[in-house]
Specification:
The complex is a heterodimer. Chain A is mostly helical. Chain A is built from four helices and no strands. Chain A has helices at 7-15, 19-28, 35-42, 50-66. By secondary structure, chain B is an alpha/beta fold. In chain B, 50% of the residues lie in helices and 20% in strands. Chain B contains 14 helices and ten strands. Classes of the chains: A mainly alpha, B alpha/beta. Chains A and B meet through helix 2, helix 3 and helix 4 of A and helix 1, helix 2, helix 12 and helix 13 of B.
Chain lengths: 80, 367
């Protein structure tokens, strides 16, 4: 089956962050979607804008960083 | 979000065996999506192997509600069940196309096929045991939720869970939800008036399994009221009304009990392992609805959190302006610089932004 989990959603699960907790972080970083829109983005029902996706990546990376990991989620303009 | 949406949102559930049809109509906005998600999850959790969502009457759909459909369709397929989106309205079809939700489109059945299916009907799984007041059940399942009223939405969702529990849990003769609101314990959903009265007997006497479940955060099962020695004031009142067993499961938000889901039966030892598991599932669903719709934070805590978040947003926004001007960049490019610079410095974006803003403040102060 073509079951693919968005890497951001996978990271959220790995971190054990609730959708609400992630939303607060995303919102503090300037994200403008509602919590439900965030959920829709993570379940790939809504295409996030590039900047919104980066804000989410930052929100997750900052949580990784708090736990001692080094920003594993790439940003949109990172060299591949 | 669209504030000009004035037509309500309505759900009808028809559940027979392991097959469920959920007909949804009206506006599926963000509020409705929460309710919709709770209901679909409840249907899946209670063992439906085949779920049909009839979206013929949907007049408006927000991305969040699409997300719910995608998530639930995945859940069904992950558990080898089937999910069908039946006769989506033009609005839904456009949203599916616009969001490229192809996995759902694959499952869409033709409108013509849908038309041959009878209207959703609520089916009483205990046809052999008619009882007074059952005529109101269908009315209980049909929900009309006005827009923008989160308490009404929560109550409607709880009524739906209550009705679903009553039809699904074998031997259940009445189901209610007790909640503490504004410091008062009240019944916010009840399958009929007799059940409501049972709850009130508990509030009046200040004792009973529902209050105990709510106070202690664990479930209470009275197998036989006739043999029950706890709650000496409440039990005789329940016996008088023909109740023989009661199962109360706590509703939890975070780790705090907020209320209870109560299932009453006129049969002794009515609830075996299977029914207890179902009751736990429904209690979990009701808890989920409460947690999602009304977070377990005081207004003060939320305000504080909001103030902090807004403050950080503001600082980041200011720093973005500084970088835009300094490096002659677009807003997007400036934000991207902030993200990468903070990562390189190993600090939070908000802290990095704060450094930029305050250094500008200092140098301006010197001039």
């Amino acid at each position: 089956m073509g079951e693919t989990i968005d890497p951001l959603e996978q990271a959220r699960r790995d971190l054990g962050l609730s959708m609400a907790e992630l939303w607060w972080r995303y919102f503090a970083l300037g994200g403008s979607g509602t919590e439900l829109e965030l959920e829709a983005m993570l379940f790939q029902a809504l295409m996030p804008a590039v900047t919104d996706r980066d804000v989410l990546a930052v929100a997750l990376n900052e949580r990784f960083s708090e736990l001692g990991a080094d920003h594993p989620i790439p940003y949109s303009d990172d060299e591949l | 979000m669209s504030d000009n949406v004035s037509d309500g949102f309505k759900l009808d559930i028809d559940s027979v065996g392991d097959r469920a049809v959920v007909a949804v109509s009206g506006a599926l906005d963000a509020h409705a999506a929460v309710l919709f998600a709770g209901v679909l999850d409840a249907v899946v959790d209670t063992g439906s192997r085949s779920l049909v969502v009839d979206a013929d009457g949907v007049t408006f759909i927000e991305a969040a509600a699409l997300g719910v459909l995608v998530r639930v369709s995945r859940r069904m397929r992950e558990s080898a069940g089937s999910f069908t989106l039946r006769s989506p309205s033009a609005v839904v079809q456009r949203a599916l196309d616009a969001n490229r939700v192809t996995e759902l489109v694959d499952e869409v059945s033709e409108v013509s096929e849908a038309r041959t299916t009878p209207e959703p009907r609520t089916t009483d799984v205990r046809d052999d045991e008619p009882r007074s007041g059952s005529g109101s059940r269908e009315a209980d399942l049909g929900l009309n939720v006005g827009p923008r009223s989160s308490t009404a939405t929560v109550d409607a969702a709880l009524r739906l869970v209550t009705a679903l529990a009553e039809t699904t849990v074998e031997n259940a003769d009445g189901v209610s939800v007790t909640l503490e609101r504004h410091g008062r314990v009240m019944t916010v959903a009840a399958s009929d008036d007799a059940v409501k009265e049972m709850d009130h007997h508990q509030y009046d006497t200040g004792e009973g399994p529902c209050l105990a479940a709510k106070a202690e955060g664990q479930w209470f099962y009275i197998e036989s009221l006739a043999e029950e020695t706890r709650w000496p004031n409440f039990v005789p009142l329940a016996l008088e009304q023909g109740i023989r067993s009661i199962l109360s499961s706590p509703l939890m938000t975070k780790d705090r009990p907020q209320g209870a889901l109560n299932i009453y039966s006129s049969t002794e030892r009515a609830f075996g392992t299977r029914q207890q598991e179902l009751a736990a599932l429904f209690a979990e669903q009701a808890s989920e609805i409460l947690t999602t719709a009304a977070p377990d934070e005081t207004d003060e805590q939320v305000n504080l959190r909001l103030a902090r978040a807004l403050n950080e947003r503001q600082v980041i926004h200011q720093a973005q302006g500084v970088v835009m001007e300094r490096d002659n960049l677009s807003a997007e490019a400036a934000v991207s610089i902030l993200h990468r610079a903070a990562r390189a410095a190993g600090i939070r974006v908000a802290d990095y932004a704060n450094d930029i803003v305050s250094s500008v403040g200092r140098s301006e102060g010197k001039q």
